[in-house]
Design a protein that fits this description.
Structural class of chain C: alpha/beta
Number of strands of chain A: 8
Oligomer: heterotrimer
CATH architecture of the largest domain in chain C: 3-Layer(aba) Sandwich
CATH class of the largest domain in chain A: Mainly Beta
CATH architecture of the largest domain in chain A: Beta Barrel
Strand order of the largest sheet of chain A: 6-5-4-7-8
Order of helices and strands of chain A: HHEEEEEEEE
Shape of chain A: globular
CATH class of the largest domain in chain C: Alpha Beta
Helix content of chain C: 25-40%
Distance between the termini of chain C: 13 Å
Strand order of the largest sheet of chain C: 3-2-4-7-1-8-11-10-9
Helix content of chain A: under 10%
Order of helices and strands of chain C: EHEHHEHEHHHHEEEHEHEHHHHEE
Number of strands of chain C: 11
CATH superfamily of the largest domain in chain C: Thiolase/Chalcone synthase
Radius of gyration of chain C: 19 Å
CATH topology of the largest domain in chain A: OB fold (Dihydrolipoamide Acetyltransferase, E2P)
Chains: A mainly beta (134), B alpha/beta (343), C alpha/beta (383)
Number of helices of chain C: 14
Structural class of chain A: mainly beta
Largest sheet of chain A: 5 strands, antiparallel
Shape of chain C: globular
Number of domains of chain C: 2
Chain lengths: 134, 343, 383
């Protein structure tokens, strides 16, 4: 985040971030990750419930970040990618345990639990899911 | 019977060779390799830590056990490198693997035997009828002072065990421990690297406790050396467990399947536990395994573990720990230094 | 619709170490007021486009700051839509006149970015993306557009050379523009060889970090002739939104918001895309211009690269794009860009674009995007 990591801001999303829990609309059947709190398709007719998603998917597009935002200086260069989960929704995250040849549109990946960001020497540690090639 | 319902390990991918470290300090790699019986050690990625490694190991154990994670009633994680000094790793892991909130948890510390202490704790809660399943993990990303002898072996890894009474793949027949106030290896609060007593870490520390605990276990359960098919001792290097086996009159061949230290170094709280994982990966039903951990400060937990018929079907569900050992990428000392800084 | 533009003004765009945010805003403001031939007290309202003064210089309440500096107590509002803040401020100023509420308004855009170090700027700019689901993972703006570029290359065969041609063309145009941050010509090779920022985008594929401000004075059609013989009119406006995060979009290679906004603008203006003589489009990254030319209808989807190979968008081509030098060469002080784009169109339509002047430009278009495409606003201008 480039500045002091807010505790409640981070804590609120732990369940969705750690376990890949999204939401599914019972009315239209659409699955959303990151989770939506209002179904954008049905709006007031929508009924959302939690759904745990499969941790596998494929790369839709990717890039390698070489100029870091604040807080990520120690990690550059790192790949980021838009990943389409096998259950449907797309999300954005980093790719880890990678070699050049793994970074292709269409490459299969799976989620793994990693550190995302540490708020300096004294602040909290933000964890989440990154993706590695299978 | 109480025993292991599912187990899993995780070893980070990077490795650094003894030769690479020795070249930086102008030391003789060959004699170090011979002395320690270690070729290379595992190095965590910049975004890995004890919590992330514990999650990987625990997810493997859950996959093998095939139980609803919400049935886990206790989580104990033992490490010397918990991400926080205050704020438990066990709840981060509990959240990440979907245990819900109805469980007890604590982090333990007892140098390299913090993980086996956790196994004893869940055994007690299960036997007392307080929980249905318990998760015990030993996991570490060990740090060593650059240029110190420990730099060749201080490594990273994790092993997780789900214990319970149903569908047990290996019964824990009994356990015996030995604990004394022996300051052989320590780290003071707010100090980055541990210190040790050099040769003092041998006979009065490692060997004394491994031998007492193992002998105590064998007496208590009325078992002889020949009753065990495999043995696993804590592996600070390759020489110590071999010597301990000899001192206890065990055939050293029985150490071989669990002898992970040669390829990954000393993974501290997961050292003996990863040895157990490697052994369970190949053991046949009916075979018996002796496990004795050692934690500096000092103490040892010894276990007798008997494999059941369920093991072959269950262990097929996850990667073998040998696959993790073989999936590796070498780094230079420069990259190793960068990775050690962590985020 | 027909709303007149009486006056324009900009600061020099670049690293303005000596000027703070209020100085930049006031400089552009007073230039526009003088160019319009009005007096400060003739203004009825102020609309200010600014993305992130809070993070760049710790200042919110920016519109009140501007009106205070001008010594005016008229209504002053800040409009924010990330990098489209300037275009949105223009649209709000426009609406305030069309509604009959105001007769003469000042529309300004300003941004002061260079008081932070690069990593701080990179981080602040991610406020235009999804903080919790993109920025959280260390994603940067260059990497978002890089993913768009890579997908465009994959789906349509667009090449890095074609992307580089955008930078070369716009730097050439910038060399003819006295306010531009970059005034030197560059070559394709220089673009390709410059350091990689987020593969496949190099430093020269990316618009720079810039300080700057731009201002327009708008007035209702009936009043225009009182102040000027050479009015330029806004004859169409369109705006649309899309999902905040790039991963939620229908397509990575089309900015649906641009398509919708431009269709609405053409409809309001009563024209088709063929009537457009020139356009200032949102080239925050070179791929941005390529996709914009497709989404605005200058060519078919996937053929934006070809336009560059043909030279169609150069000064003198069939549809000149970014005669000012674009965001790439003039610079991209985020909130100011949308207004600066309009300034360029006005200068061209008035015949005041000097070395960049097109022959016989009658109808111009501005295209301003927020974030990776969550907001798009298009305006059509005519003599």
């Amino acid at each position: 985040m480039g500045h002091e990591s807010s505790v409640p801001l981070f804590w609120r999303l732990i369940k969705s971030r750690y376990q890949l829990i999204g939401t599914k609309c019972k009315t239209c059947g659409n699955v959303f990750y990151p989770p939506k709190y209002l179904c954008p398709v049905c709006r007031k007719e929508g009924k959302l419930e939690d759904i745990k998603l499969k941790k596998t998917g494929k790369i839709i597009s990717f890039s390698i970040v070489r100029s870091a935002p604040s807080g990520f200086e120690k990690e550059v260069p790192y790949p980021v990618a838009i990943i389409e989960l096998d259950d449907g929704p797309r999300l954005t995250s980093q790719i880890v345990d990678w070699k050049e040849e793994d970074l292709k549109i269409g490459s299969r990946v799976e989620a793994c639990f990693r550190r995302i960001y540490t708020d300096g020497e004294e602040g909290i540690i933000n964890y989440g899911l990154k993706f590695r090639p299978v | 019977m109480i025993g292991i319902v599912g187990y899993g390990g995780y070893i980070p991918r990077f490795r650094i060779k003894v030769e690479e470290i020795a070249s930086v300090w102008g030391s003789n790699a060959k004699s170090i390799k011979n002395g320690l019986m270690v070729e290379e050690k595992s190095v965590p990625s910049i975004d890995e830590d004890t919590a992330t490694i514990s999650v990987e190991a625990a997810l493997n154990a859950l996959k093998m056990a095939q139980i609803n994670p919400q049935k886990i009633g206790a989580i104990y994680i033992g490490s010397e490198s918990h991400p926080y000094a205050v704020k438990p790793t066990s709840t981060i892991v509990g959240e990440a693997i979907g245990v819900g909130s109805e469980f007890t948890a604590a982090d333990t510390e007892f140098a390299c035997k913090a993980g086996t202490a956790g196994i004893q704790m869940v055994m007690g809660l299960i036997k007392g009828g307080y929980i249905e399943y318990g998760l015990a993990i030993g996991s570490d990303t060990a740090q060593s002072k650059p240029g110190d002898a420990l730099e060749y072996t201080a490594a990273a890894g994790g092993a997780a065990f789900i214990a319970g009474k149903k569908n047990v793949l290996a019964e824990i027949e009994g356990t015996f421990s030995c604990s004394t106030d022996t300051p052989d290896f320590w780290r003071r609060e707010n100090v980055e690297f541990p210190r040790h007593g050099g040769r003092f870490t041998g006979i009065p520390a490692y060997f004394k406790h491994i031998i007492s605990a193992t002998k105590g276990l064998m007496d208590k359960l009325d078992l002889k050396q020949s009753d065990f098919d495999y043995i696993v001792f804590h592996m600070p290097n390759g020489k110590f467990p071999l010597r301990a086996a000899k001192m206890l009159d065990f055939d050293s061949e029985k150490l071989i399947p669990g002898f992970v230290v040669k390829s990954i170094g000393n993974t501290y709280s997961s050292s003996s536990l990863l040895g157990l994982v490697a052994t369970l990966d190949i053991a046949k039903p009916g075979q018996r395994i002796l496990l004795t951990s050692y934690g500096s400060g000092a103490g040892s937990d010894s276990f007798s573990i008997k494999v059941t018929d369920l093991i072959e079907e269950k262990r097929k569900r996850i990667k073998k720990i040998q696959d993790y050992i073989d999936d590796k990428e070498y780094v230079t000392y420069a990259k190793y230094t960068r990775l050690r800084r962590g985020i | 619709m027909k709303v007149a533009i009486l006056g324009v003004g900009t600061t020099k765009f670049g690293e303005n170490w000596d000027k703070n945010l209020r100085q930049l805003a006031i400089e552009a403001g007073t230039k526009a007021i003088m160019d319009a031939g009005i007096r400060g007290r003739d203004l009825n309202a102020i609309y200010v486009g600014n993305m992130s003064a809070g993070r760049f210089v710790g200042q919110e309440h920016v519109a009140a700051m501007v009106s205070g500096e001008l010594g005016l107590s008229i209504p002053a509002s800040r409009i924010e839509g990330a990098c489209a803040s300037g275009g949105l401020a223009l649209r709000q100023g426009l609406f305030s006149i069309l509604s009959g509420q105001h007769d003469i308004v000042l529309v300004g855009g300003a941004e002061k970015m260079t008081d932070l170090m690069t990593d701080g700027v990179t981080s602040s700019l991610m406020g235009a993306g999804d903080q919790e689901w993109e920025a959280y993972y260390g994603v940067t703006f260059p990497s978002l557009y890089a993913m768009i570029a890579r997908r465009h290359m994959f789906e349509f065969g667009t090449t890095r050379e074609q992307m580089a041609k955008v930078a070369v063309k716009n730097h050439h145009n910038g060399s003819l523009n006295p306010i531009a941050q970059f005034r030197k010509e560059i070559t394709i090779k220089q673009v390709l060889d410059s350091p990689m920022v987020a593969d496949p985008l190099t430093l020269f594929d990316c618009s720079p970090i810039t300080d700057g401000a731009a201002t327009l004075i708008l007035c209702k059609e009936e009043l225009a002739k009182k102040y000027t013989d050479n009015p330029v009119y806004i004859i169409g406006s369109g705006q649309a939104s899309d999902t905040l995060a790039l991963h939620d979009r229908r397509s990575l290679t089309t900015l649906d918001a641009t398509v919708k906004a431009s269709k609405e603008a053409y409809r309001q203006a009563g024209i088709t895309v063929k009537d457009i003589d020139l356009a200032e489009v949102h080239d925050c990254f070179t791929i941005g211009e390529i996709i914009a030319t497709e989404d605005l209808g200058f060519c078919k989807k996937g053929e934006g690269g070809k336009l560059l190979d043909e030279g169609a968008t150069e000064i003198g081509g069939r549809i000149p794009v970014n005669t000012s030098g674009g965001l790439k060469a003039v610079g991209h002080p985020v909130g100011a860009t949308g207004v600066k784009q309009a300034v360029e169109i006005v200068l061209q339509l008035r015949g005041q674009a000097d070395k960049r002047q097109l022959k016989d430009a009658k109808i111009g278009l501005t295209h301003n995007v927020g974030g990776s495409g969550a907001t798009a606003v298009v305006h059509i201008f005519s003599r």
